[in-house]
Amino acid sequence: MGTFKIEGGHQLKGSIQPQGAKNEALQILCAVLLTPNLVTINNIPDIVDVNKLISLLGKLGVKIEKLAHGSYTFQADNLDLDYLESDEFKVDGRGLRGSIMIVGPLLARFGKGYIPKPGGDKIGRRRLDTHFEGLINLGAKFRYSKEEQFYGVEADRLKGAYMLLEEASVTGTANIVMAAVLAEGKTTIYNAACEPYLQQLCKMLNRMGAKISGVGSNMLIIDGVETLAGTDHTMLPDMIEIGSWIGLAAMTKSELTITNVSWDDLGLIPNVFRKLGITVERQGDNIHIPAHTDGYEIQSFIDGSILTISDAPWPGFTPDLLSIILVVATQANGSVLIHQKMFESRLFFVDKLIDMGAKIILCDPHRATVIGHDFKSTLKATTMTSPDIRAGVSLLIAALSAKGTSTIQNIEQIDRGYERIDERLRAIGARIERVD
Description:
This protein is α+β, with helices and mostly antiparallel strands. It has helices spanning about 20-30, 50-60, 85-95, 105-110, 130-135, 170-180, 195-205, 240-250, 270-275, 320-330, 350-355, 390-400, 410-415, 420-425, and strands at about 5, 15, 40, 65-70, 70-75, 110-115, 140-145, 150-155, 160-165, 185-190, 210-215, 220-225, 230-235, 255-260, 280-285, 285-290, 305-310, 335-340, 360-365, 365-370, 385, 405-410, 430-435. The chain has 14 helices and 23 strands.
C-alpha cells in the first residue's frame, strides 16, 4: 500500500494544467465499441481507472495503439465476445465501476451485454436500475445471477421508445444513449443527465453519424441509425481537478494559475468558490488565483443566514467537489453548512480533519457544519488513510496546508483519479514524497 509523506505549511507558486476528464474518458472509451472503424481519442488521463478500462477493452479484442501521451487509436472490428462470460472478465469488470457503460454499446451492436456487479468508491449506494430499466425500455431482456452477482441484457434488435428517467444518472444516460443510437426508430430520454461530459459523448456520436438532438438539455431525442463511422475526439479538462487546484491555492495562500480550463464548461464551480471568499480571476481560458495572504471570508445568504452549499445534477454543483469545499471552509472566516444530497457516506472522512484540529460538526450522513479558523489556528499534521478518490485529495490539500509532516496511506485511491499528482505538485513547490 503506497504512502504520501507531505511537509505542509509552504506556499506554492506557478501554473498547473488539468488532466483530461476522468468521467468523460470512461464514457468515450466505451463508445469505441459502437463501430468497427478507427476512433482516435486525445487528452486521455493516465490514471488507474482509465487504464483499467483500456486494458479491459484490449482483452475484449479492441485493437489499441498508443500514439503519444494521452492519445490512442481504438478499433473494435474483431471482438472476442466469449470474454464477456469468462471468469477473467468477472474479475476485471468488478474492479471498475465505469465498466457498466460497455453494456449499452455491446447490446446495440451485438445483441448482448454482460457485466459483473461493479465496485468503485465506497461513497454510498449507487444503483444500476436506471441503466437496465432504460435498456429494457428499448426491448432488451434482463437477467441477473444473484449467486455470481452477474447482470446480462440481450435483444435481437433494439427499438426506440419514450422514457422518463427516475434519476438523471450521468452513466445511466450515457449507457442508454449509446444503445439508442443503433436502435430502430426514435428514442426520447426525458430527465436525461446534461453534464458537459455527456454533451461531449453526444457530440462525438453525432460526428460518427448518430442523430441526437437536444444535446445540453434534459430531453434527448435520438433517431436510430444502422451503423456508425470512426472519428477523432479530444476530451475536456477535468473540472474536478480544476476545483481541487482552486482549493489548494486558497488553503496554502498560494498564487496559482490553472491553464486551459475550458471556462464555458465549468458551470457554477467558480462562483461557488467565490462564495467562500476566494478570488477566482478569468484570464483568457486560464484561472488565476492570487495569494490569499489575508485569508478569505464566507458569504452569507442575503437575509444574513448561514450559507449552505449542496450538490445537484448539472447544471447544479457537482458532488465530486463538496469534499474540497468542506476542506477549504476549515480555514475560512465564517461558517457554512455542507449538504451532500446524492451520496450518504461521502462526508465520513471529516473525522480525519477533526483530528487535524478542524471545527466540524457532522450533523448526519449527509450534512456537516464547518466553522472556519480564519487561519488563526493551522491544521495539525497527522497520519491518515485515503477512503476514496475525492476525499483522498481533500486530505492531501489539508496536509499541504497543515503545520508539520503528514502521512496519507492507501494513495492508490488518489491515483485512480489524479495523474502523477505528486510530480505535478512538486513542480509548483509542494513538498510531497511517494513512499512504496
